[in-house]
Amino acid sequence: MPPQQQDKTCPPPPPPPPPSNPSTKISPYVQNLRSTPPSYLSQPPKPVDHSVPAPTGTYFFYGTLSDPSLLAEILSLGEEPVFRPAFARGFECMLWGQYPALVSSGSRSDSESSSGSGSNSGSVVEGAAYHVQSVQHAERLVEYETGSYRAEACVIRYADGEEPREERGFVFVFVGDRREISEGRFDLRVWLRRMGRGGAVERLDERRVGDDGGTG
Question: Where is the composition biased (Pro residues) (predicted)?
Fold first, then answer.
């Protein structure tokens, strides 16, 4: 009889799921998966190289990281960071799926350059600059960008008229499969709305109005 009683015994209920983090609306990993190229989902992602510590210093952001609220989430900052408007020369911004992919203007193929579709060394990419103070924060940025991007040295030129006018820093350059990138324009506001981050768009618009001195 004991074996029969044991068969009728119901298994214990599964443990409750862990509590969600209320401070994170959308994880960076989910954001990366929601609109990456098809090959990213069918092939293992390119691993991040941790053999060398991620560099600290001023970074030039030109894509999703130019949203202060997203950067605050990734770095677990207590408040949204303050950016300086900036630009970088000698690069071209293309698209990897729905994400911007920065490449050197001189790295385009000869056929593209001869057809007139390539950019020259004077091409300008606009964005924002932020000083990354710790290796931990730099490593978080590297993880967010995935192994398809690499932090490389660049000259950051500021567009706000303040000093310094320029300085050496870093920018995430695309190092993935060049066959997966294409011509196109990245729109941060469109991307934020697609990711369900309409509040971030409103804050960007409010900040723009404030920088312009109001609408009168």
Answer: 10-21
Looking up tokens 């119901």, which residue turns up? 10
| Contact between 101 and 178 (Cβ < 8 Å) | no
Q: How far apart are CA 151 and CA 174, in angstroms?
A: 9
Q: For the chain, which residues score pLDDT lower than 70?
A: 1-45, 107-122, 209-216
- Residue range 55-104+122-209, CATH number: 3.10.490.10
- pLDDT (0 to 100) of residue 48: 80
Looking at residue 109, its pLDDT comes to 46
Distances (CA, A) of 71 to 38, 56, 97, 210: 26, 15, 21, 21
pTM of the predicted protein model: 0.73
Residue 131 contacts residue 58 (beta carbons within 8 Å):
yes
